[in-house]
Structures are given as C-alpha cells and as structure tokens.
Amino acid sequence: MADWPLAPVAANAYLGGWGIAAALADGVDIVICGRVTDASLVLGPAAWWHGWRPDDWDALAGAVLAGHIIECGPQTVGGNFAGFQEMTDLRHPGFPTAEIAADGTSVICKNAAHGGAVTVDTVTAQILYEIQGPRYLNPDVTLRLDAVSLEQIAEDRVRVSGATRSPPTATAKVAIFAQSGYTVVGSTFVTAPDVAEKVDLLRAQLEFDLPSAVTELDITQLGVLQSSRNRSGKSRSRYESLLRPTPRQLSLTSTSLEDSRAFTSKASPATSWTTPHPPRPCLGQESPTGLRFCR
User: What is the pLDDT of residue 29?
Assistant: First the structure.
C-alpha cells in the first residue's frame, strides 16, 4: 500500500462461514453478511446443521467444494458449458442444489422442472472455474482438489467425494478500492462501403494527439460480416447489424476528468458519436497483478 499512489475508499476482507453458522444457531431466519467468500454461504449453514467444529477439516473441505460447485447457479447445469449443443432445453436452466452429508460428501442435483443437466462434465467444468490450482484457499479450510471423485448416480445427480484438506492460511484475501480516474463510453455507426478501412481511419482520428492522461482506448466492433446472395444468385458480403450500419463501441479510461471531457468533444465531430455519456468515476482495485481499471 505504501507504493500505491491512490487514496483507498473501501476495503473488504473475504471472511468465512462461521459467523453465518453462529447466527443460525442463535435462531435467525436471514443472515446479512459483509464480504464473505461464495463458498461460505454453503459452509456456514452446513456447519450449523451438522454441528461441525472448526477443526472438522475434511467435512469443511467437502462443504467448500459443494459451495464452489453451486456458487454460480446455472453454470453447473450447463449455463456456460462448452458442450452445450449436446444438451437438451437450456432456455431456462435450473439452479443446482447441493445435498451435503455429515461427512462433507455431497450430491449435486437440480429441479426436474427446469432445463439443463447435472453431469460429471458440467460439474467438472464448474470445479475448474476460478481456482488457483490443486489447492483452493478459503478462510475456513484449504481444499485439496487433486483427489476429488465425481460419480453419476442417477439422471441429474452427481455424487462428489474425496475432498481432502489442510488448515486455512494465516492470511486473508483483501480487496482495496480507490478512484483511479474516469471512463467515457459511447457508440457510433460505421456505414458501408469500405467498412474496415473506415474503422482504421476512425481509430487513427481518435488516437491522434491523445491527452497524456488517457491510459486506455478501446474500439470494439459490434456488427459481424456475413455473406448473402442477391436475386441473381451472385454472392455478396455485407455487414449485418442494427439498422445495417456497423456499430462501434468506444471506451476510454483516463486519470483526468478534464482530458475525458476533452476526448468526448473531440470524438463527437470525428465519429458522429450517437450516444455520448459524460465521464464517470472509475474504481481501481489493488491486486497481486497490479492495478485494474474498470470499463
């Protein structure tokens, strides 16, 4: 923090599930948390229900794994699954459920009335999501993933076992936020012909003489190039998008409010900017990889 040039406005430590367990033991119906890990929302109720102790490491590791599997909702039933084309109706994917046993093993399932599927592959895909490696750190326990076993025991039912553990680390993850600058976002339409060349010209216009405080400039194409045939059967290419012209989204991040406003004024005549937005504050997050700017 001594080397971070920004003034923090918020800091959140990622806490575990024992506060949730204590609240449920006191008889509350709803627990409102600060920043806890996603898996804590499962570990806390499971620890309360089964009467686990803070050193019941294997059971706690199993609950963290179950929480990790269902934390992103429909992702576990195919909502973001690479093999989605092999699945049945995904228009309304269901939310997964974890049935957690006293020893920490679990069965992942879903409501039969909803779409998607719970398979070894969909559960595996979610287990591999946002992990650091075979050791998955959590405030209450460190989960070892290299011995996890998955078994399809019935349609839309996968048994999860084999989670091993070690005690939690002595440190906790902390996210610290500060205002790092301003961002401007807008869109314009690029009309045919010579769309690609016109986009190159647009980029050159915007990059020319950029203020020194501008740290990032993105130009993202929203239309796609498609082929079609006219009535004579001759093939032709066209950009198919909203109202036929190809929209472009322009995004800029700057450390200076004045430079952000100046860019907005400059971009408008150059691009016929149709939806300009005033600069808005942008939060930076201190992380192990450095400073990240919002978009």
Answer: 95
